[in-house]
Write a sequence for this structure.
């Protein structure tokens, strides 16, 4: 049964198997640089595209015309030139160290990296889940508010219809009362006219009787 070596053991083992390079520099991770003839970003290029992990022989370090530190180095092809110091590292790159690991340690390191990636994905999914829950709650509240507004609108519409019915009823009642008042006025006026005619007849009859009594 194979013995599984932990990631901590892999790192410890890695530090033991990688020798110290006092006079060597390495192009840092994930970068391509050019070897120039002078400590100036506009100077002539001696060699192009030194890839990440390229081993360079370090000679000395000076400040360039751009106020940055530059290192005078010799490439594996034997070409001498200047590169910016911040593009160099004193130790082999992580990729180079990883390549020196035994296969079982590489597998352990890959598993650790994969676990970390899965953990980050899980945290992202949990965050998205919480956001979805919050959005769902907001949508539910909006939907509830919309339903309440619809109910209020229907209620107001019904009340408006009842008010219209009451208005029409009052209008009809007012018209009826107005017609009744006009009828009463007409009857009263007609009664006054009849009373006047009747009174006129009575006065005429009374006058005739008085004259007849005087003639006798």
């Amino acid at each position: 049964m194979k013995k599984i070596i932990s990631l901590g053991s892999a790192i410890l083992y890695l530090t033991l198997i990688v020798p110290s390079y006092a006079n060597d520099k390495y192009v840092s991770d994930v970068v391509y640089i050019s070897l120039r003839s002078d400590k100036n970003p506009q100077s002539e290029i001696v060699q192009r595209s030194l890839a990440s992990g390229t081993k360079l022989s370090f000679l000395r370090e000076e400040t360039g015309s751009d106020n940055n530190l530059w290192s005078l180095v010799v490439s594996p092809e034997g070409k001498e030139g200047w590169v910016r110091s911040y593009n160099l590292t004193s130790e082999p790159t992580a990729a180079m160290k990883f390549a020196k690991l035994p296969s079982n340690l590489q597998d352990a390191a890959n598993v650790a990296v994969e676990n970390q990636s899965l953990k980050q994905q899980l945290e992202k999914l949990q965050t998205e889940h919480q956001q979805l829950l919050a959005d769902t709650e907001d949508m539910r509240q909006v939907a509830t508010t919309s339903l309440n507004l619809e109910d209020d609108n229907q209620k107001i519409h019904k009340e408006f219809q009842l008010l219209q019915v009451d208005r029409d009823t009052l209008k009809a009642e007012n018209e009826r009362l107005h017609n009744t008042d006009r009828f009463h006025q007409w009857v009263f006026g007609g009664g006054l006219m009849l009373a006047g005619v009747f009174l006129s007849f009575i006065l005429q009859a009374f006058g005739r009787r008085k004259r007849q009594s005087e003639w006798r």
User: Anything to note?
Assistant: Residues 25 and 90 are 5 Å apart (CA to CA). The radius of gyration is 56 Å. The first helix runs from residue 7 to 17.
